[in-house]
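Worked problem 6 (solution included).
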Amino acid sequence: MNEKYCVKCGAQLSLDANFCFKCGTSVGQPAVLDNAQWEYCEVKQDNRGGCLALGIGDYAWFYADALGPKGTYIAGRSSALNAYKVSYYGPTSDLPNASDLRAFEKLHSDFVKILLQDGWEPTPERGENWWNLRFKRKVKSTDQLNAGEKLAFDVVLLTAGPNKIDVIKAIRQLTNLGLKEAKDLAETPNAVVLQSVGKGQAENAKVALEKAGGTARLQ
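Solution. The predicted structure is:
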């Protein structure tokens, strides 16, 4: 009989587990996942610039680290929070009104709503940090996939329009691109801003680009 153990704490796990529910360590792709009815994801945080340990960075965002029948993949990504400075466990002494902390929490809440729109269901387990919520979603059957149900979308910026600066800002919030890369994307007709993302995230990104003045479509 197959057995599975956490590589960090040694706890015995069920064969379909992708996280150790004792210590929270990711344990990789389960041996029997191809036959499972569920796929799983955990919300994680990343940033660009600054110090991740202190929660100080140029941009911060959340993403869903997922495990499905074909292995690990990114199930979604939040927009980026610009120039934040926030402690993971509460406001720092430099933030007496904690406004950036509230913005960070709202970013997380908005991203969770997108995951729910994409069919992810909350589970009682969570990781080490408050934002490490875990979700599961039923794996689409072969019949559903053959019926043509689209699961992933590309967000294409057709044109930036007259308000190119606002569109560049929107691109940087939707991606982790630097200023030059975002500017090049805004100046490129039919540029793919996001690739193979869920329906909820794609629709929100399209709205953000059009609100900034650009013209976008999903494909």
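Discussion: The mean pLDDT is 75.
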